[in-house]
Design brief:
CATH superfamily: Macrophage Migration Inhibitory Factor
Distance between the termini: 39 Å
Largest sheet: 2 strands, parallel
CATH class: Alpha Beta
Low-confidence stretches: none
Structural class: alpha+beta
CATH topology: Macrophage Migration Inhibitory Factor
Number of strands: 4
Strand order of the largest sheet: 1-2
CATH architecture: 2-Layer Sandwich
Length: about 60
């Protein structure tokens, strides 16, 4: 039972997240031969002010 965690900046629509979940599930089933119901996906929306790259907040 694979668990996939996706952490990304907030701002995607529910429809985009739905498509992402479907795509990830499709790849897992195709490449690993597991049933779709065995794939669990957690999507974490992170505000840009809580994410830093190269010592700078992404919101800057």
């Amino acid at each position: 039972m694979p668990l996939v965690t996706v952490e990304m900046w907030e701002g995607r629509t529910v429809e985009q997240k739905k498509e992402l979940a479907q795509g990830i599930t499709s790849v897992m089933t195709d490449k690993l031969g597991i049933p779709p119901e065995a794939v669990t996906i957690i999507i974490k929306d992170v505000p840009k002010h809580n994410w830093a790259i190269g010592g700078k907040l992404s919101s800057e």
